[in-house]
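>> received
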Amino acid sequence: MTEEKDTEQYERMAQLYMKEKRYPEAIAVYRQLIRMKPDMDSFVLCMAWALKDNGEVEEAVAQFEKLFKKELARKVFTGFAYDELVRLFRETKQHDRLVDICERAVAVQSKDLALLYTLGDAYLRAGRPEKARKIFQGLLDEEPDSSQYHAALGNALIAAGRFEEAEASYRKAIENDFPGKAGAFLNKMGHACMLAGAFERAESAFRRAVEAFSEEPIFRCDLGDALVMLGRMDEAFRSYGDAVRVNPAFEGTYYHRLGNLLMKENRAPEAVDAFHRAGAADPSNAFYKLALANALNSCGRTGEAEKILETLRNPEGET
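>> returned
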């Protein structure tokens, strides 16, 4: 009875440390709990979360892996550790490791459509579109009316450069879903084209998404991004301006997003314009000012950049 009370006390302590983001202390307590109750997988899972939040990613992976191996051995696949590993490897873009755990899960649960779908997505992220295509085609053989699977197949076909087939697959996704979803699917197709470097096709898809649902400002921002990649700056700014007209409350956010893309594409002079607009929409936002200063520095306009930085260092000195 005393041991049970001790366990409860330690568990409450660990939960408190986690709530307060005192991860090293939480980890130490969970290690003690695991020594006390070595069969309690929930303690291992919690410790792995604490390790991840503390930046000890590889140690967290090792703990999740221990649980994942147990999950694979059970008749009923719970997948708690599997889900965490999928999320972690996606976040850290460790695509080969992502493929490995997905293949291992499918090897023991070969009829689980959700696991197969995640494997297909892993192949796509890892740059293996043909393997992804086969997975998604197999899923469609099981559920031929699934819009999700048609769209996923379309993404694999785009990654493989088979654009006309991808268009046909996306058409089926639209046909099989609820009315009014065309814009969302066309926008998704545009993103797949962007990832494939097919910017003209992305522009076409984004324009059709805007036509299908003109009240979604993000579709217009996405169109602007494609236009940036095509080097058509004036049109890109107009598209972002259209997004602002649809949703004026997010003007600063939209232009800050545009500025970040322009900086990434080594277009600092245009980024200065975008960050100026973001700052004009929200003059108190320090992130917008810092971004503008960075863009000005990249243009060699160091004096202007220093004035902005000085206002950030001494905000009370602003006139």
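>> The chain has 18 helices and no strands.
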